[in-house]
Amino acid sequence: MLSLCLFLLPCLSFLPLAPAAKGLEFPQYDGKDRVLDINDRNYKKALKNHSMVCMFYHGPMSDSKELQKQLQMKELVLELVAQVMEEKDIGFGMVDSHKDAKVAKKLGLEEEGSVYVFKADRMIEFDGLLSANILVEFLLDLLDDPVEVLENALELRAFDRMEEDIRLIGYFKSEESEHYEAFKEAAEQFQPYIKFFATFTKSVAKELTLKMNEVDFYEPFMEEPVTIPGKPHSEEELVTFITEHRRPTLRKLRPEDMFETWEDDIEGIHIVAFAEEEDPDGFEFLEILKEVARDNTHLPDLSIIWIDPDDFPLLIPYWEKTFKVDLFRPQMGVINVTDADSVWMEMDDEEDLPTAPELEDWIEDVLSGKINTEDDDDDDDDDDDDDEDDDDEDNDDNNNEEDDDDDDDDDDEDDDDDDDDDDDDDDDDDDDDDE
């Protein structure tokens, strides 16, 4: 039911509650079918007639009414996006994994429930939340040039503020440079998930301390970049370096790539921090977290996911119930992605947040295995064992009480026999007296 809500909400968000003034007329689905049923006869034409084609790969229609409604809602999201993007030369289609298995194999579609975008000779998988808002933004980013050029100090200031993103920036002689061309080709491999920038302006390059044909790699939330060694770089060298360094020390869970981030676990676990950036405590906790990440970015197995609950309001009740935490306060924990078991850092003082050294000590215990989600399972088992021991003790007490009752009954029977014997003796004495 939660997944149905996730797909339903974006559609409902386009329905105005009151008549909107001109300039704020949110689009409503007009009922026209624009999403194709992709099959062996029309898929080549669709790819040829559009600069990009967006396809939703789904399983066969289920007998379950709930699953049928979910599929209908996903189709409605695609229809609304197709309507909004109608003038952008983007085609939309749905591929049935059962009926159109041959087409899916030819196109390289593998994961049911995923959205794939075909642009030129590339296939890009959309790993975000399937909502109209998020998908439109994703497609617009794909329509942009893969490299953005910085020409002045104001653009450089905007670049500096993009601390949540992985960014690369290179300094090249001109757009005709073969080294810039290799940089641009590499950018296409990661568009739109990783941002690429270039400058041909000497003053901008000087501000960035870049030399000719040099490329800097910026990890999220880090103050200083890493210069990619061995300039100038080929496309293959850039792709290899980015692939090896793509997992940041601290990264934010974002709707546009949330599933890719969540699936990139380390040995089945994530270190997760919940903090509302707009909340004073959340902001303070996030700043402490950034400090810890910067001081420990050299650790290859350290990767922390920061989740701002405000970005996922529908998931707040689910997270609080599943992880048994209060998300109105900053939280730090380790989560097993297989069964959602979790262990959370104890914050004894509700007024004071943990210090950077305290966070580092806790993270060190997680990385060493001293703190892990299996310990939580052991505690549950211990509780079960305690319950069993209590049951055994209760049974023993009951058995002892029954034995005591039996002994009391035997004593009563003996007393009755003694009384009967005494009565018989008295009767005999009376008979003797009569005689």
Keywords:
435 residues; alpha/beta; Glutaredoxin; 5-stranded mixed β-sheet; 14 helices; 46% helix; disordered C terminus
Overall form: globular
Within the largest sheet, what's the order of strands?
A: 1-3-2-4-5
Please summarize the sheet with the most strands.
5 strands, mixed
CATH secondary-structure class of the largest domain: Alpha Beta
Write the H/E string, N to C: HEHEHEHEEHEHEHEHEEHEHEHEHEEHH
CATH architecture term of the largest domain: 3-Layer(aba) Sandwich
According to DSSP, the number of beta strands is 15
How many helices? The count is 14
CATH topology of the largest domain: Glutaredoxin
Q: Spans with pLDDT under 50 lasting ≥5 residues?
A: 1-14, 411-435
Mean pLDDT: 86
What is the total domain count?
3
What's a quick, concise take on this entry?
The protein is α/β, with parallel strands linked by helices. The chain is about 45% helix and about 15% strand.
